[in-house]
Amino acid sequence: MTTTPPAPVTEPNTLSAPAEAGNGTATLPQWRLMLRRFLKSRLAVASSVVLAVLYVCAILAPFLSPNPYDRQDADLKNAPPTAVIWSGGPAICSREQQLDTETFTYEYSSDCGKPVPLRFFGKGHEYKLFGLISTDRHLVTVDKPHTLLFWGADSAGRDVFARSMQGARVSLTIGLLGVAVGTFLGATIGTISGYFRGAVDTLLQRFIELLMSLPTLPLWLALAAILPQDMSVASRYFLITLILSLVGWASLARQIRGKVMSYAASDYVAAARIAGSSSARIVFRHLIPNASSHIVATAMLAVPATIIAETSLSFLGVGMLPPAVSWGVLLSDAQNVATVQQYPWLLIPAALVVLAVTCFQLIGDGLRDAVDPYG
């Protein structure tokens, strides 16, 4: 007499994909579990959208800006933002400049009785879209001799909005590039230190401790100050990026070292050794990929620190220098308290820095929670 064995009892698994006929239950890959958990964080998702908008604005900066970012106009020194009104359609008020003989400052009066209509996708100054396509179309323009200033003008009569969008290209990309260099160094050195141990680990850890004992900001200031003043914008950009990534990798290297030391005792690493895999293959094909989730989360949290560092160096006059444009360079015009009181729109780049840094931090928190989807 044969008896039919009882069907196995399976516990419900909310992290599994629907079962396919004849194949049992198929589990989701880890990256999909991480994505699912990340999407549950509304703040992280909203921050991703805001950050994506900032990067799109940086890419399309010439198209969005009605004026050249480097054009100076003596008739628009410290001009306030242009008032937008509705007069059968969006329009601006005409503006006149007058000199106050008592304070020797320029004052501006608006005449809304003669509105100037805004023209969408109109013609303006020529530029190269994406650095390749020559065009003169802009999102919003006005007829000459009028000037559209969304966020006012600085002391040289330059458009703050156009310069802020142009500065986003430097400030937002230098953070990503600096963190990318630091992450590569930290992940590689930390993995080598945790895998080989012994004299290699001791030597690397003593060097990391020495590097972490140095005060970060004075070190950045000293290295940035020795750069020649007559360097090209591109050369200074890459050198400032290397300076910012010089210290940031040390903390990540120590974290990765601890994880790799636990991974190195795993069965799959022992199996790889028995199979004849070289140390380089084990490090780059097994250890670093397993620590990739932690690396990504840590790198995302390091981006805002790099953005603030570049802004601080440029604000102090040793980072990016004119004619380069970054948010730190723009904020250097707002060092005087009296200037800020009279022309508060010069602080708008500071609001962009706060917005970008906050978004990166919220995304980093969401990634940090998502790297452990089984938690």
From TrEMBL:
InterPro entries from the UniProt entry: MetI-like, MetI-like_sf, OppC_N
Subcellular location: Cell membrane; Membrane
UniProt keyword terms in alphabetical order: Membrane, Transmembrane, Transmembrane helix, Transport
Transmembrane segments: 43-64, 174-196, 208-227, 233-252, 287-307, 313-331, 343-363
Species in which this protein is naturally found: Nonomuraea polychroma
Protein name in the entry: Peptide/nickel transport system permease protein
Any single Pfam family the record assigns to this protein: OppC_N
Primary location: membrane
Protein family according to the UniProt entry: Belongs to the binding-protein-dependent transport system permease family.
Membrane association type: Multi-pass membrane protein
Residue span(s) of domain ABC transmembrane type-1: 168-364
Any GO BP: transmembrane transport
Any one cellular-component term (Gene Ontology): plasma membrane
Region feature Disordered, mapped onto this chain: 1-22
